Amino acid sequence: MIRSFRSPQKYVQGPGVFATQLQEVKKLGNEGLLVTDDFVWQLVGNKIAQDLEQLGMKVHVLLVAELDLAKWTKSSGLEVIIGLGGGRVMDVAKTLANKMQARCAILPTSAATDAPTSSISVIYDEQGYFVGYDHYQFNPDLVLVDSQVIFDAPGKFLVQGIADGLCT
User: Fold this and answer.
1) Theoretical Cys-Cys bridge with 15: which of 5, 103, 116, 148, CB 3.0 to 4.6 Å?
2) Which domain holds residue 23?
């Protein structure tokens, strides 16, 4: 039987890594796009953006509610796309990184999905119905998991993540 294994280039996990390991994101580039949603932005995103800027990184922010992929795929200078949040945010970040040929850092905020480490994005139509998958040649460059943030997320996300993992 032939077996194959693919994974992110680097995986860092532990309590407080969003506060102590952001230099791993900075190593991927000097200018990045932080993809998140309004809830996660308020929860941890604003702090992460400020901390990355203190490390010398120029950070732009894209809230998935204002989703305009065409605008960002034409942006120049972006070296790394940072997906901070849940499955939709991670899928958008991986899509942008692929289209822009940029590095990709994934910072999940719950255990609701297996999207952080995968080399695919789920595609939905405007009504939210499943359309298909985009497959990429590479997995994310970095997955940074703050286990305290995951622990503090609602328990239903852990159950959803177990189900998602079993399905895939």
Assistant:
1) 148
2) 10-167
